[in-house]
Amino acid sequence: MRFWNSLISVFSVVLASLAIPAAAETYSPRVGERHLNFTLPAIDDGRPLSLEQLRGKKVLLIQFASW
Amino acid sequence: MPVWHNATRQWVADGKLTVLGITQEQHPDRCRLFSQWQQFDWPIVWDPINSLESTAVPIIVAIDEHGIVRSTKLRPETFEQEFLNVTFRDDAPPAATTVADANNRRPAKPDLAALRDRAEQSQTARAFRDWADACVLWGGETEVDAAIKAYLQATRLDADDANVLFRLGVAYRLRLDSERREPADFQRAVEHWEQALARNPNQYIWRRRIQQFGPRLDKPYSFYDWVDQARREIAARGATPIALTINPAGAELADPARAFATESPAAESPDPDGKIQRDAAWLIQSEVTLVPSRLRAGGTTRVHIALTPNAVLKAHWNNEADPLLVWVEVPKGWQVSQQRHSVVPPDKQETSTEIRRIDFEVQAPADATGTVKLPAYALYFVCEDENGECLYLRQDISIDVEVLAVTDKEESQ
After folding, report:
1. Same domain, B302 and B267
2. Which residues in chain B are closer than 8 Å to A51, comparing Cβ atoms?
3. B222 domain-assigned
4. Are residues B408 and B308 in the same domain?
5. Residues B355, B269: one domain?
6. In chain A, which residues have their Cβ closer than 8 Å to the Cβ of B70?
7. Which of B80, B104, B128 is the last residue of a domain?
8. CB contact under 8 A, B20 and A59
9. Out of A18, A37, A49, whose CB is closest to B101?
10. How does DSSP assign A31-66, residue by residue?
11. A25 neighbourhood in chain B, CB within 8 Å
């Protein structure tokens, strides 16, 4: 939680520094391009969820860890 | 994430926004507990193998109704104006969708048998990797052996795929945390994570997986020190905290440190002359894992010792007597964070068969080299079988630490 608190306070700066370098085999979402689709299990019941099924909705995609 | 959760709650309630979380944590139930504690009301998916190949978290991306990325540099205070209230046109080239994507907005779990057949027929590293990925994500405990075999085959076909090495480590750790565990699963997990990270040292998802179990000097923060607080606060709300399959302990709770710390005052060996009878029948099986698996002279490693009652012999802990003790000797020039360890039985049961784990840190002297054996032993009350004889026994444990020589170049830095 200490990490989160400090991170949140400087969120925008940190986020900019976390921009993923353009390299093969890494996640690098680019503004103006379609986000890659994925299908992964939900943590609560394992049901498959995909980005594609949210088409038609505005989505905030958050990759995070509890630590 | 609490800031974004609070900022977006009303927009989600109004139907203006959908939030989707992704976590790369090894243990999904820990993220569930965190989500319950923080009262996240949006779905979270599990990507322990990091199939998206993200290199760090957090990452937050705004995606419009056409699936097009509109921002990766978001601020809650301008989010509505810059994203939610904007009407976007579908102005990006069409994505290379798969047949499954195009036909199925409601996705199904992949067909593991079909992926296996494709891998065996094509004999390509990518096909074996795809099969293994699906086994980890969708197959549960019963498919973890298949996942490991498929990842191993993928590494034979393409030894340079660092993603496969990391994912193989994830699979070994998954098996360790299951009833299908095999000896050395934890050490194999660590070694494969290390091999992956050596190929791509900028991969912080992978680095964090090692640091989670590693020494305090290498930790960026405590990974799971929030768990107790979360449980208390959830219970205070009148809810039942989500149960964890594996409770975080030791290294996963430890705070970072800037200097190697040892206990004070030093403890005394409980069996200095080795008079207590040895566990010749291996009623208790011990396993040592080092994180990192090797260290530089002067470096530190976290030693994990697991002690498991022998299931074949139906051995079990006797909890009515003294608790399990582990004692670690300190070779000359070495430091050990804690020499004497005690494990209290769970829930005051008279007997039990759980795995008992302790972990601590050692630091090598600056002139150490080669493989150094750190002597240790465990003392425990164990029973041979149901209604069998209970004995107080000692097991000698050798902690073999491989110390890598510091190169001239490293020394001059």
Report:
1. yes
2. 20, 63, 67
3. no
4. yes
5. yes
6. 31-32
7. B104
8. yes
9. A37
10. TTSBPPP-EEEBTTT--EEESGGGTTS-EEEEEE--
11. 53, 163
Question: What's the pLDDT tens digit per position in A4-60?
Answer: 444 444 333 333 333 333 334 578 899 999 999 999 999 999 999 999 999 999 999
User: Rounded to 10 degrees, what is the CA torsion of A23, A28, A32, A34?
Assistant: 110
* Residue B80 burial by Cβ neighbours in a 10 Å radius (0-12, 13-18, 19+): middle
Cβ–Cβ contact B43 with A under 8 A: yes
pLDDT at position A25: 58
Q: Are residues B134 and B94 in the same domain?
A: no
Residue B203 is encoded by which pair of tokens?
A: 């991969």
Nearest 10 degrees: Cα torsion B189, A38, B118, B150 = 0
Contact list in B for residue A38 (CB cut-off 8 A) is 47, 51-52
Is there a single domain that holds both residue B268 and residue B327?
Answer: yes
> Given pLDDT bands bounded at 50, 70 and 90, which one contains residue B410?
low
Predicted-complex ipTM score: 0.91
pLDDT for the residue B413? 56
- B198-249 confidence digits (pLDDT tens): 999 999 999 999 999 999 999 999 999 999 999 999 999 999 999 999 999 9
pLDDT of B408 above 70: no
In a domain, B229, yes or no: no
Residues B53 and B136 in one domain: no
Q: Does the beta carbon of A39 lie under 8 angstroms from any beta carbon of chain B?
A: yes
What pLDDT does B257 receive? Answer: 96
* Residue B284 Cα to chain centre, angstroms: 24
Provide the number of structural domains found in chain B.
3
Nearest Cβ partner for B53 among A25, A32, A34: A25
Q: What is the chain A residue with the closest CA to B43?
A: A42
Mean of the per-residue pLDDT values of chain B: 93
Please tell me which of the candidates B19, B83, B108 has its beta carbon nearest to residue A62: B19
Q: Do A1 and B229 touch (CB under 8 A)?
A: yes
Here the CATH number for the domain that contains residue B297 is 2.60.40.10
Nearest to B97 by CA among A49, A54, A27, A34: A34
Per residue in B250-286, pLDDT tens? 999 999 999 999 987 667 899 999 999 999 999 999 9
- Domain presence at residue B220: no
B3 at interface of A, judged by CB pairs closer than 8 A = yes
What pLDDT does residue B346 have?
Answer: 75
* A11 alpha-carbon distance from chain centroid: 14
**pTM of the predicted model, to two decimals?**
0.91
Neighbouring CB atoms inside 10 A of B30's CB total: 27
User: B390 lies in which domain range?
Assistant: 260-412
Taking the CA of residue B73 and the nearest CA in chain A, the distance in Å comes to: 7
Same domain, B67 and B121: no
Do B182 and B304 reside in the same domain of the chain?
Answer: no
Helix (H, G, I), strand (E, B) or coil at B244: coil
Contact B30/A at CB under 8 A: yes
Residues of chain A contacting B221 with CB distance shorter than 8 Å: 2-3, 67
